Amino acid sequence: MNKSDRVIRHVAFFFSLALYLTLLPIILSYSLGYHIDFNKLIIYKTGILSIKSIPSGAAIYINGNIYPDITPARIEELRPGTYSVEVKRDGLFPWQKELTVRSNMVTRAENILLFPMLQVKEKVSDRETDNFFIPDDRSQIYYMTKAGLYKTNLDGSNPKRLSSYSRWPSDITGKKLSPDGNKILYFNENGIWIIYLNGLRLPAGGDVVEVEEVLKSADVIKDVFWHSGSNHIIFVAGRDIDVMEIGKGGVKNIVTLNRCNHQPQGVYYDAYNDSLYFNDSPADKSNLYRLDLREKFFGKLMERIKKEFDIIYDQK
What we know:
The protein is α+β, with helices and mostly antiparallel strands. The chain has helices at residues 3-31, 295-315; strands at residues 34-37, 42-45, 47-54, 59-62, 65-70, 73-78, 81-88, 95-101, 106-113, 129-133, 141-145, 148-152, 160-163, 174-177, 183-187, 191-196, 210-216, 221-226, 232-237, 240-245, 254-259, 265-270, 275-279, 288-292. β1 (34-37) and β2 form a beta hairpin.
């Protein structure tokens, strides 16, 4: 080996070593999720976008540019920042959102539901319906019509007339099925009605349910709730929170549980624990209260009513 060959070998060795030492940090940086912006001469750590859609197979657009893969997809080595992400598939409404990518983190958009543009609309009733009600168990549809109360299956099949009652108010605020499934209450600002579904007047007129107006109120009724026992309703009227014992016909037992300083706001009923939450001041939102209306409450309430009745009876 002559001298010139040794020089070339030494130059090649030191050049390779310098190149290796130069590229090693870059290679390690990329393997650890770091990238180099050679224009701004800064090093940054990348983030990831995870995108899933129902149905899958949708195209993905990042800042208007189509991504090579379709959903589900994991888009890696993204520079931190905000991206405009669109998910599109033929025949479905597109999904679009601004997503923020952060360093060394996965930003997830994995619950994307694409709805069909062609909606299937099926007519389930051709009756002149003033109002209708579908219970939480989704077992039936109840129709409040001028010809009476009807029910059908959810697809409109098997229609059955339950009652000839037709004096439905035009401004119903809400409807609720009792926990035992035997009664439906509906109400507006001035009244509460109960539909008893367990049959009452079979011999007279063929009605299999009874509709009863249980309350007329001079105060505006804000909301009505079923107690879990299905024999009481709790209602908010004006500044009062009242409880009413439900029974077919006769005088209803009504007790005012709480008289608020103002009409209760933000009223919420926890049906699992029979507790009523409300705010007693529109000016001070920190006044949140809870009324515990579980069975022990009604035992104490009945004792109180009995004592008051005994006092009145003794006075007579």
